Amino acid sequence: MEDKFIAIYQANPDGSYAPKSLYYMGRVNEELAKRSYLRSDYQAAVDYYNRCAKRFTRHSWTDDSLYRMARVQYYNLNQAADARRTLNTILRKYQSGDKYKEALALHRKIIAEVNGSRSSHASVKKAPSRQKQAPAKKTTRRTSGKVALNGVRFTSSNDYTRVVIDLSGEAKHQYKFLNADPSRNLPFRLYIDLEGTVPSSAVKDELKIYDGILRMIRVGKPVPSTSRVVLDFESVQKYTVFALENPYRVVVDVSAPKNGKMTHPPVDLSRKAPVHKNKKPSRTIPPSRKVPDLVEQLGLTVKTVMIDAGHGGKDPGASKNRIREKDYVLKVAKMLGKKLKAKGFNVLYTRKTDVFIPLEERTAKANVQKVDLFVSLHINANRKSSVNGIETYYLNLARSKSARRIAARENAISEKRISDLQFILTDLMLNSKMQESKALAELVQKSMVKTVRARGWKSKSNGVRSAPFYVLMGAKMPSILVELGYCSNPTEAKRLRNNSYLNLLADGIANALSTYRHNLKNYAAM
Question: Is-contact 408 415, C-beta < 8 A?
Answer without folding.
Answer: yes
